[in-house]
Amino acid sequence: QAKAQGCNTWYCYSTEVKAGSMEPLRLRRELADAINQQQLVLHYQPIVTTDTGRFVAAEALVRWLHPQRGMVSPAEFIPVAERTGQIIAIGRYVLQQACQDMADLRRTTGRCIPVSVNISPVQFRRSGFFDELKAILQASGLPPEQLVLEVTENVLMSGTESSIELLHRIRDMGVGVAIDDFGTGFSSLSYLRQLPVNKIKLDRSFICDITTSRGHAAIVQGIITMAHHLGLQVVAEGIETEAQREDLLQRECDLLQGFLFSRPVPMTALLALPEHPRG
Ligand code: C2E
Ligand code: MG
Ligand code: MG
Ligand code: MG
């Protein structure tokens, strides 16, 4: 574990491995163990308001605590799990755990932290997803308004009518929908107009050089302005510097998420964050 190697936080990435360097078959087998042996854990990253910096929501991000390899990043194992179908079990676990964590928090402390959960296209397109979502919400007791599903643009592009219909049912239930990694796919803002979504999350690749690339700054400004005209909230991902925060404040971006405020952390650490996390 990272802690044994002198890190002050056990969830730091010092032991992160590239699962890509693991044999696919072995990875697949070990991932099956991970699901059965409860090696998957959720970390949460706060989302703050741009103007006041207040902590208002959190995104659930899954981690694999591998017994020998340490923490494996979801960027490494989610794509494999999508190919093998293991994402179905993983996705169900994540949704259940996130709803349970926030419902428990509400019951025991009265505190509400709306939570965003990433939904893989494989999971979203599978028949029965809606019923599963409903059952999970009911079992946890979390009010649907406290949950946001993050889907990527391509889910909606290829999904045609059935995906849009499903989004409507999800929204009618009270659950929010955000488009993740916005700007990296092929959807247009005019297409967004037809979609029942509440917010878009600007991809980190636009944010990292927003203060140095005029092109990216112009794209970001255009997206924010048009999203607001469509009545959508905008969240910027990957905020690492004060300059980026100030830039996005000028551009009237609604919400921010990034290492400047906090890395994704275990639930207990999330609860210990101040109301206005900075750096
Ligand atoms: P995402 O949903 O776009 O999540 C944001 C990613 O950006 C997270 O990486 C987060 O740790 C990282 N990040 C946040 N702020 C900063 C920053 O300031 N700087 C930098 N460099 N990175 C930042 P993470 O946790 O490694 O997750 C990567 C991706 O894996 C996620 O991207 C999401 O697509 C996927 N993922 C994570 N958890 C789940 C899950 O439970 N289900 C599914 N289907 N996918 C998941
Ligand atoms: Mg996300
Ligand atoms: Mg994203
Ligand atoms: Mg991303």
From TrEMBL:
<protein>
    <recommendedName>
        <fullName>cyclic-guanylate-specific phosphodiesterase</fullName>
    </recommendedName>
</protein>
<feature type="domain" description="EAL">
    <location>
        <begin position="24"/>
        <end position="278"/>
    </location>
</feature>
